[in-house]
Specification:
Elements lengths: L14 E3 L14 E6 L2 E5 L5 E4 L4 E9 L3 E8 L3 E10 L2 E8 L4 E2 L3 E2 L2 E10 L2 E9 L3 H12 L3 H13 L12 H13 L1 E2 L9 E2 L9 E2 H11 L4 H12 L11 E2 L14 H12 L2 H21 L41 H21 L5 H15 L1 E2 L4 E2 L1 E2 L8 E2 L17 H12 L32 H13 L3 H22 L38 H12 L4
Antiparallel strand pairs: 1-2, 2-3, 3-4, 4-9, 5-6, 6-7, 7-8, 8-12, 10-11, 11-12, 13-14, 15-16, 17-18, 19-20
C-alpha cells in the first residue's frame, strides 16, 4: 500500500506486539517486546526478559516503515548492514527475513510466559526466520516456528500496515505532521486487546507492556482518540470497562481477563468519554448502555468517598506508600498527597460535577427524568465555596477544617480542572488563566502544563511531581474552550502537539510524560524515584503510551471538544 509518510523511527523502548484489531490475543502468553539499539534487537518481555538481536550497536537506519507489528528497514550496525523485514502472524509468532550480513540470534529459549523457538532457513541471499512462542511445550513452539517459515511475509506486511497506512491525513493540523499522526494511530492499534476471559469485547490497555491491564480513566481517553479513527472501537473501549462494574456500582481502578478485586477506583470520566464518542457516532443505543451503570457509579462515589461527610468527595489515599500515596487519583506520587490527612480534592469533585452534567444530557437524549443537573449545580457550588483560595486565585485541595493549615496550596495542574465543569465565575477563570496558567515562571512552559508549577519548591522531574501529562493538558484545553479562551487553548494544543512530535522524531517514542522545559529526553526523566529499571516497579517512563497517542490524534483531527 503506497503512502506518503509512514512511522520510521527505531527508538529505544518502542513496543512490539500483535494487535487485538487483527485477531486473538492472550494476556498471559504473548510475544511482546521493546526495541533496543545496543545491540539492535527486541527485548522480549517473557519473565525473565529474552533478547532477540540482529547485529551490533545501531549506527544508522533507513527505514521504510517501523510499526509495532510490522517493520521494513535498512540497518547499519557496528558489525553488519542489511535489510530487515518482519511482521506478526499472530500473538505468538513473528515472521521475518534478512538480506545482507545482519544476523538473528535468540538469547534464551523459555520464560514464565512459555517456550520460544527461533527457526531459520537460508533462501539464496535471503535468510527467512520465524520466532514462535508456545505456552505448553518446546516441541509445539518448534512446530509453529517451522510452519511460520512458509508464511507469505509480503502478505503479512501488507495486512499489518493496512490500518495505519489507510488513514486519512488530509485534514491534520499543521503542527501535527503525518508521520507522527500515523505513529500515534499505530500506538492505539498496538494497545488494543481482543475479547478474552471475563472481558467479552475488544478492550484497550495503556501500554501492552508493562501495564497490560485495562484501566478505568485511560480507557476514556483512548476512546476520545479512537472516535477520530473508528467509532465502534471507541465504543468498545468504554463498554469493556463498564461491563466489569461491581454489583454495588463500583468500577475498579483496573481489570484484566482473569477476575480481580481492587480496593480502589480511578477518576470518574467515563460519561465524558462516552459523550465524546456519541458526538461522533450518534448511537443512542450505546448511550443507553452507558447511562444507568455510570449513574450508579457516581452514586457509589457519594456513598463511599465522603469520609468527612461534608458533601465534597475525597480520593482514597495510601498513607504508607511513599511512591504512590494516591493511585486512585491517577496522580500517583503528586506532592498534593504528601500529607497524611483526609482532604477534599479539587480534581475528583470537578470530574464528578462534569459527569453529572453529562448524565443530565444523556437523560435528555434518552427521554428520561433525572435530577443530575440539580445535583451537579449543588456540588459545583460547594467546590466554588470551599476550594477557591481567594488570595492565590486558584482552586486547591483542602482539609475539612477552617484553619489556614488545612489548605494544600501547592500550585498544580489540578488547580485548573474546575473549568472543565464550568464551576468558576468568568472573573475567577480569568484570574486563573492570566495570573497562573500563562505565567512562564509557573505553567506556561515550552511543553505545558507542568503538573507542579515550575516555581514550587516541590517541583521535580519525577512523574506527577512536575512533568507535563497530555491527558491533563487535554482536559485543561477543554476547560479553556468552555470559557472562550480560544487563543490560549489553541496555543496549549499546538505546544502539546509540537512537543509530542519533537520527541517522536528525535527518539522514536510516544511517552507517558514530558519535561516541561523540553530539555531532558522523556526516557531520562524519573519515575517514582529512579530512571529506567530503578524507577517505580522496575521500569521507567513508558514509551508508546496509549493516552498520549490518543490526545495527539484528537488534537490533530479536531479543534473543538
Amino acid at each position: 500500500m503506497p503512502v506518503a509518510v509512514m512511522p520510521d523511527r527505531w527508538g529505544e523502548g518502542k513496543l512490539f506486539a500483535f494487535s487485538g484489531l487483527d485477531g486473538k490475543t492472550d494476556r498471559a502468553h504473548t510475544l511482546v517486546g521493546s526495541a533496543i539499539t545496543h545491540p539492535v534487537g527486541i527485548m522480549l518481555h517473557l519473565r525473565p526478559d529474552v533478547k532477540l538481536s540482529f547485529g551490533g550497536a545501531l549506527r544508522e537506519s533507513d527505514a521504510r516503515m517501523i510499526l509495532g507489528d510490522a517493520v521494513d528497514t535498512y540497518f547499519t550496525t557496528t558489525d553488519a548492514a542489511g535489510r530487515l523485514r518482519f511482521a506478526f502472524a499472530d500473538c505468538g509468532r513473528l515472521v521475518g527475513e534478512i538480506i545482507g550480513n545482519l544476523s538473528v540470534e535468540l538469547e534464551e529459549a523459555a520464560g514464565e510466559m512459555g517456550f520460544l523457538e527461533l527457526a531459520r532457513e537460508p533462501r539464496g541471499e535471503v535468510l527467512r526466520w520465524c520466532l514462535a512462542l508456545s505456552p505448553d511445550s518446546a516441541e509445539e513452539a518448534s512446530h509453529h516456528a517451522r510452519e511460520g517459515l512458509a508464511m507469505d511475509l509480503d502478505g503479512l506486511l501488507e495486512e499489518r500496515m493496512r490500518f495505519v497506512g489507510g488513514l486519512d491525513t488530509s485534514d491534520l493540523d499543521e503542527a501535527a505532521g503525518e508521520r507522527t499522526f500515523r505513529k500515534c494511530a499505530e500506538v492505539l492499534k498496538l494497545n488494543v486487546r481482543a475479547a478474552e476471559g471475563q472481558i467479552g469485547r475488544r478492550w484497550t490497555t495503556p501500554d501492552v507492556w508493562p501495564h497490560r491491564h485495562m484501566w478505568l480513566w485511560d480507557s476514556a481517553f483512548h476512546a476520545v482518540g479512537w472516535r477520530e479513527l473508528d467509532g465502534e472501537m471507541a465504543q468498545d473501549a468504554i463498554l469493556a470497562v463498564i461491563e466489569q462494574r461491581g454489583s454495588d456500582g463500583k468500577i475498579d481502578l483496573c481489570q484484566a481477563p482473569e477476575p480481580m478485586d481492587h480496593p480502589h477506583t480511578q477518576p470518574p470520566i467515563l460519561a465524558w468519554g462516552a459523550w465524546r464518542v456519541f458526538e461522533v457516532t450518534g448511537d443512542e443505543s450505546f448511550l443507553a448502555r452507558c447511562y444507568e451503570p455510570l449513574g450508579r457509579f457516581i452514586n457509589w462515589l457519594f456513598a463511599n468517598r465522603d469520609a468527612n461527610d461534608n458533601g465534597l468527595l475525597e480520593w482514597k489515599k495510601e498513607f504508607d506508600d511513599e511512591r504512590c500515596r494516591c493511585g486512585e487519583s491517577g496522580w500517583d506520587n503528586s506532592p498534593r498527597f504528601d500529607r497524611n490527612i483526609i482532604e477534599d480534592h479539587v480534581d475528583l469533585n470537578s470530574y464528578v460535577v462534569r459527569e453529572m452534567q453529562i448524565l443530565a444530557q444523556m437523560a435528555e437524549v434518552l427521554g428520561k427524568d433525572s435530577d443530575w443537573r440539580e445535583r451537579a449545580d449543588s456540588l459545583a457550588a460547594l467546590v466554588d465555596e470551599r476550594l477557591w483560595h481567594e488570595e492565590t486565585g486558584l482552586y486547591f485541595d483542602r482539609g475539612p477544617g477552617e484553619d489556614p493549615s488545612e489548605w494544600m496550596t501547592i500550585k498544580s495542574g489540578a488547580c485548573f480542572l474546575p473549568m472543565i465543569a464550568a464551576i468558576p465565575s468568568r472573573e475567577r477563570a480569568r484570574r486563573m488563566v492570566a495570573e497562573h496558567l500563562t505565567d512562564e515562571s509557573e505553567f506556561w512552559a515550552a511543553t505545558p502544563v507542568p503538573t507542579v508549577a515550575l516555581d514550587e519548591p516541590e517541583y521535580s522531574d519525577d512523574m506527577w511531581r512536575g512533568p507535563a501529562w497530555m491527558n491533563n493538558n487535554y482536559l485543561i484545553w477543554e476547560g479553556l474552550k468552555c470559557y472562550g479562551f480560544e487563543e490560549v487553548a489553541d496555543e496549549l494544543r499546538r505546544r502539546s502537539l509540537r512537543s509530542i512530535r519533537y520527541w517522536y522524531e528525535k527518539t522514536g517514542g510516544i511517552y507517558e510524560y514530558y519535561d516541561p522545559r523540553r530539555e531532558t529526553p522523556p526516557a531520562w526523566l524519573h519515575r517514582k524515584g529512579g530512571v529506567g529499571d530503578s524507577g517505580g516497579a522496575g521500569f521507567g517512563v513508558i514509551s508508546d503510551y496509549g493516552w498520549t497517542a490518543a490526545m495527539y490524534i484528537a488534537w490533530a483531527k479536531r479543534k473543538d471538544p
